[in-house]
Amino acid sequence: MTAIIEARGLSKRYGARPALTDCTLHIPPGHVVGLVGPNGAGKSTLLKLACGLLAPTSGSITVLGGRPGADPAQIAKVAFVAQDAPVYSGLSVADHLRLGAHLNPRWDRAFAEARVRSLGLDPKQKAGKLSGGQRAQLALTLAAGKRPDLLLLDEPVASLDPLARRDFLRHLMETVAEEGTSVVLSSHLISDLERVCDYLIVLAASRVRLVGEVEELTAAHHRIIASRRGADTLPSGLEVVAAEHSERQSTFVVRGVPEAADDWAVEPVGMEDLVLTYMEAGSAAGAGAGAGAGAETGLEATR
Amino acid sequence: MIWLTWRQLRPMLIAAGTVLCAAAVYFIATGVHIRHTYSADLNNCHANCQQVLNDFAASYQNLRALIQLIVQATPALIGIFWGAPLIAVEFERGTHRMVWNQSVTPVRWLAVKLASGALASIVTVGLLSLLFTWWAGPQDKIDTDRFDWNVFGTRDITPIGYALFAFALGALLGLVIHRGVLPAMAATVVVFVGVQVLVATQVRPNLMPAHTATVSVDAQLLSHPVNTTITGSPSGPKVSFKVSPPAGSWKLSQTAVMDGSGAPLPAKAVQDCIEGPSIQSQTDLATCLAPYNPHVGVRYEPASDFWPLQWYETGIHVALAGVLAGLCFWRIRRHRD
Amino acid sequence: MIDFHLDPHSGVAPYLQIVQQVRRALLLGLLAEGDRLPTVKQVVAKIAINPNTVLKAYRDLERQGLVAPRPGLGTFVTKTLAAGPPAEQEPLRRELHAWLERARDAGLTPAGVEALFHTAFRDFTEEADEATKAEEEP
Asked: Which of B42, B46, B139, B302 is the most buried (most CB within 10 A)?
């Protein structure tokens, strides 16, 4: 199938500092993708590479079959809302909609106006006077109004209060349900995203640590709680992602399906725990600059 | 994009338009009055016309100097308030990330912004210069030093070149200086003023070949005390003469006093003449020095060079503006975010 | 129209929660045959969840034979779940309410009440299964 984002060995450096390293992705369409990772992991960089605001240092990235930012047609297909939802503070809400209509080849005026109405925004209000939540909603309206095939949102709810956050996600899901738009949202907290994401990318220390459909990933990972033992004593066929030992107990997060046994308990791993586990393993691997515990390569759930 | 640029420029254009209208009203109202006074003075003077006209010019001297200052500052203001924030404000607020995603490429975005700002600068400064040059017409006829630094750069077409250059400079500095709008504004002022000084002192005098002339140090020259300066020095009194090139031309430099053969006037001769007991007046000094055939060489640009220099200087600044704009485009293709 | 809610920490997959809520509504008589389920768009606009979750839940319900889509019109309930005649339910509900009051007076926390109920329900179901098995064995 044609991927919405296809990256091969994608890397971006700022001088000596790597922002994204050797990223290989094949993201299928029709998903709401959660891009999670600690601050500085490379989430913004990946999104900006995908919308053409940055050019790769090495490797390649193709979005919806085209090179990001190549021409107005490509820009029209991909919508990007930067962190803090920048808007022109001197222009009113209605002016922003006019901006959208003038600059975009396919602009859905009816949708944008209806959205502004349902949000309760005053069209004459200057955008600089809007609250954080309202600004985020305006930015989302501008992005969705151009009827893109892909929406890229950089930490859209990070600075919003819980009510504004829920409102934003509701309107976003409404757009997805209506138009079938694919979405990639980034956040450093998975709890912001787990309601809405069905595909996951975990970034840590500039590398992809985990990639795949949420359901498959949560089904494929388990937690084994056993008496104190080494990871090599576990049956083969199980990939150990993380291991924790206390005096009498060892806890492993494994990829694979462990059989039930008398001397250990097997538990499922929720999405938040899964993300944290890979983020920790990834950050440690990044700090060690060597092979991590099998979490180094971009692990992809095979389809 | 044009609509958006118009909306973003609108406050500035309204401000400039208001100022221009007020200036136009002022210039036209007072200018007409000045011309009336000038013609009246011309008609009514009989013998002491030069004196009358000088008085006339002197009465408007300060006002002219003040307005000259404003006109001189205008290109710099354009660079600071229209040029520097053009791109820097968008980068500071991050709005470029939003507008570049509204299906307009950075190149087209930059092109429309630069073109609009350039056009606005040309029109604003062009009108201002036109009005002021017309207003100062009578005075400029009397005080014929058109090459004076303050005069040359505030008349006719040179301000337009300066404004375009300042605008492009501000835009480029706003683009490459990533620390915000204020540092970009400060840098624009510094560089612009530096270039103005450089052009006026180093470039302008050398744009066209200078003419040379020799002026004889004779009684007529010496009859104006201001033309003679006698200074004391450890090795004895020294004398220097101030000579003027033909009326209306631009004096570049003059040599020291030379004798008939072209060698510097012997110091002893000068000493003797000055300290001589029979020297009571400048005329006597002239007679005393006459045997040496003293004269001074002077380099100057003739009055007819005024317009060619205006065109050259404007052309240089427009070309510079073009280069800077080109750099803006080059930079924006390479460094997007 | 039924309103859904999502409990992200219940450990139950989101789409299953929707399925369970529809089933519960059917059992309680809040949804009847011929009622229209809210559209995917309506559901996600109310509770911010992934539209695919709702689609999956509706497909699951369709597989269970409880709902059926009618193109252009929506998804409609096709079968009610036998809960016993409504008349029987009210006395049972009253008894349950009285029991809950007694449990609260005895000092049980809500979690304790739930745990007690689940244990008793599980034991009861196991006993019933074993009894059925015993009857079936020759």
From this structure: B139
Chain-centroid distance of CA B230 in Å reads 32
Evaluate whether residue C1 is within a structural domain: no
Q: Are residues C52 and C103 in the same domain?
A: no
Q: Measuring CA to CA, which residue among B15, B17, B12, B314 is closest to residue B163?
A: B314
Tens-binned pLDDT, residue by residue, of chain C (138 aa):
788 998 877 778 888 999 999 998 888 888 888 889 999 999 999 998 999 999 999 999 999 888 999 888 889 988 877 666 666 677 888 888 999 999 989 888 888 888 888 888 888 887 877 777 777 665
Please check whether residue C52 lies inside any domain of the structure.
yes
The residues with which A211 forms a beta bridge, in sequence order, are: A201, A300
Q: Tell me the backbone φ, ψ of residue A151, rounded to 5 degrees.
A: -110, 125
Nearest CA in chain A to B92: A86
Token pair listed for A85: 């939802």
User: What is the predicted ipTM?
Assistant: 0.83
Pick from A196, A214, A272 the residue to mutate for testing the C interface (most C CBs within 10 Å).
Answer: A196
Count of CB pairs separated by less than 8 Å, A with B: 71
Single-letter code of the amino acid located at B19: V
User: What residues of chain A score a pLDDT lower than 50?
Assistant: 290-303
Residues B275 and B287 placed together within one structural domain of the fold: yes
Phi-psi region of C129 (alpha: psi -120 to 50; beta: other; left: phi over 0): alpha
> Is C43 domain-assigned?
yes
Taken in order of first residue, the domains within chain A and their CATH numbers are 5-197 (3.40.50.300), 220-300 (no CATH)
Q: Which of A173, A198, A268 faces C48 most closely, judged by CB atoms?
A: A173
Residues C42 and C63 in one domain: yes
| C55: nearest CA partner in chain A | A177
**Phi-psi label, residue B98: left if phi above 0, alpha if psi -120 to 50, beta otherwise:** alpha
- Chain A contact present for B99, CB below 8 A: yes
Residue B263 belongs to domain spanning = 211-303
Residue C128 amino acid letter: A
pTM, whole model, 2 decimals? 0.81
Distance CA A279, CA A209 (A): 7
Domain of residue C53 covers: 14-77
User: Do B103 and A86 lie within an 8 Å CB cutoff?
Assistant: no
Instruction: From C77, C104, C124, give the residue that closes a domain.
Output: C77
Same domain, B299 and B310: no
Contacts of B11 in chain A (CB under 8 A): 90
Q: Report the neighbours of B using a cutoff of 3 or more CB pairs below 8 angstroms.
A: A
Specify whether B254 is located in the same domain as B180: no
Would you call A171 and C8 a contact, using CB atoms and an 8 Å cutoff?
A: no
In a domain, C2, yes or no: no
Residues B96 and B146 both lie in one domain: yes
Domain count, chain C: 2
Secondary structure of residue C84 in the 3-state scheme: coil
From its phi and psi, is residue C72 left (phi > 0), alpha (psi between -120 and 50) or beta? Answer: left
